[in-house]
Amino acid sequence: MSTPLLELHDLDVEIPLADGTLHAVRGVSLTAYAGQAVGLVGESGSGKSLTLRAAMDLLPVPAKITGGSVVVAGQDVTAMKPAQRRAVVSSQMAMIFQDALTALNPTMRIGDQVAEVPRQRLGMSASAARARALDLLDQVGIRDPEQRYRAFPHELSGGMRQRICIAIALSAEPGLILADEPTTALDVTIQAQVLGVLDGLRQEGVGLVLVTHDLAVVSSTCSELNVMYGGRVVEHGSTDVLLSAPRHPYTAALLRSVPDPDEPVHRLLTIPGAPPDLLQPITGCAFAPRCPAVVERCATERPPLMDVSAATAAGHTSACWRAEEPERWPGSIGEAALGVAEELRVVEERVHR
């Protein structure tokens, strides 16, 4: 197999604050290859976005990597000097941010923003960079690129601005794109169009790591899935397997929160309680206080990611002491362990109509 474009090994990210240290990312490992789409899902505050920012060397001050390693195209960049690290990272990866309006420079025409990287980093002439920018605008589905080249960000719709951000990300010819909730603020029609652009790039060989809250999005976009909770990956495997046979109660609870499009919704299913306080040490499983399947051991021993592929599929891991007995999980999470992939498929099909 080819060398992964990105490898995270036991990554830790901490944020020193006035009232303590927030341990935001705790031992996260992840691998992404060219032409592969990898998903990161979980509630807000689970560490998804900071994981991407750590990989891109874009952590906000005062956050810092305190453990583990970041390997980009076979090179461990963790201990490199900042300038060298940025050069290696930016030559292989690019990032798309959640809010396209704030990611774009409001004082620059969008064509100049797309052409900036080809000029400054790739050394193209002004005319060659302009031609490259026009080609990228066309590639991401911007109609009439010549006219849109001269527009300012506020003159474009949300979907078009997100496409511009994708074009900027592609302008340095990266092998891997890290996308932090790129469709959150878009309506379902525009969301489907943006996801179509990203999937088209993946089919051309560009790798994708996608952070999202939307399970229907990952079901249609990603082949591999990582579920994060409390700063850790609590379940990993192929998307099809995790959505049809989850082996962590948190994954199952997320799946049951997706409404059935064929049934009247009187009340949305939620996960009781609140995510853990990452300023405090976590003893045992972080999900234990909210978990319907909790047992005594969960409160005192932290479960590692364990291989559960014997009952599902190769590469499936779960950080749950009861992963091997989902038939004994109570209530709705037990139902989810029996499979809700068909509901997600129906939701995804309706979104893309």
TrEMBL record:
It is found in: Cell membrane. PROSITE patterns: ABC_TRANSPORTER_1, ABC_TRANSPORTER_2. It comes from the Bacteria. Its main location: membrane. SMART domains: AAA. One of its GO terms (cellular component) is plasma membrane. GO terms for molecular function: ATP binding; ATP hydrolysis activity. Coiled coil: none annotated. It is a peripheral membrane protein. InterPro entries: AAA+_ATPase, ABC_Ni/Peptide_Import, ABC_transporter-like_ATP-bd, ABC_transporter-like_CS, Oligopep_ABC_C, P-loop_NTPase. Pfam families: ABC_tran (PF00005), oligo_HPY (PF08352). Transmembrane segments: none annotated. Signal peptide: none annotated. Residues 6-255 form the ABC transporter domain. One of its GO terms (biological process) is peptide transport. Keywords: ATP-binding, Cell membrane, Membrane, Nucleotide-binding, Transport. Belongs to the ABC transporter superfamily. NCBIfam families: oligo_HPY. This is Oligopeptide/dipeptide ABC transporter ATP-binding protein.
